[in-house]
Amino acid sequence: MHNILRRLDLNLLLTLDVLLAELNVTRAARVLNLSQPTVSLQLGRLREMLADPLLLPGPRGMLPTERARELRKPLSEALAALNSALSPADAFDPGSSNQTWKVAASDYATTALVWPSLRRIRNIAPKTRLALLNKHPLDLASDLEGGRLDLALHIRDEAPPTLRQRSLVHERYVLAGRHGHPAFQSKLTLKAFCALEHAIMSPNGAGFTGTTDQALAIKGLQRQVVLSVPNFNSLISALTHSDLVAVVPQRMVQDEAALHVQDPPLVIPGFEMLMLWPERLHRDPAHMWLRDLIASTVETTSCLRH
């Protein structure tokens, strides 16, 4: 089969498709906008390559051989499929689409990036579905390239270099605790900060150190981390029900009415959140629409809060 394909060109297959439909060289030439001698020449080449006369003289035009009859339907379907595959992608219509998107998002990314976009997605594309998954950073590239994921929201420091990316936010850390916490009644010194009982979010489980501890270690200091939880919802709940404090990304707590939020008494490096996707989806209209919606929503939300 592959040898035949190498010898054929697409123009010959298009001519054969029209000839099998018209059963007349003159009419086929008119449909193809070619001269009759050109179509006759192409029919001769097809006969030679397929080792079959294909069309024979008949009382009212030409009659297809048995080989030609067998070819007509699969040839027509193959050309239609090829035309569809090579045609420019249709514009994405979010109002009628039933697309399902699979997005990898951490606890932070879900709260800070997905939830602000969700209302717009539901309003503009009500028939679509969104599946949020928690994926290990090492699996992101293979899952995106293999079709198990469509989009990932992740920090720049762990972003696979093979993926397309778009920056969404530069996040900073703040110190949070319950309203009325005695530590917030006066200016908090670095010494007093270290003496407080801290909680930490550790997605991998049972971790008691993080970026804050690295910043303190540079100064030769330590803090008291007495609680480790697996997600930010648990962390916020712990802060509202105790005198624990926590250093958290600003977007996780800035709308929490039950919490007092302020700058910590030392500089703690923040992080950048990216949107990641595979090359296979880079020009997909539906995927482009989702990326633009999330990015514009995050940008608008950030501007309103500043």
TrEMBL record:
Organism, scientific name: Pseudomonas graminis
Residues covered by the HTH lysR-type domain: 8-65
Domain of life: Bacteria
The family this protein is said to belong to: Belongs to the LysR transcriptional regulatory family.
UniProt-recorded Gene Ontology molecular function terms: DNA binding; DNA-binding transcription factor activity
PANTHER family according to UniProt: HTH-TYPE TRANSCRIPTIONAL REGULATOR LEUO-RELATED, TRANSCRIPTIONAL REGULATORY PROTEIN
Keyword terms: DNA-binding, Transcription, Transcription regulation
Pfam families xrefs: HTH_1, LysR_substrate
Protein name: HTH-type transcriptional regulator SyrM 1
Classification via InterPro entries: LysR-type_TF (IPR050389), LysR_HTH_N (IPR000847), LysR_subst-bd (IPR005119), WH-like_DNA-bd_sf (IPR036388), WH_DNA-bd_sf (IPR036390)
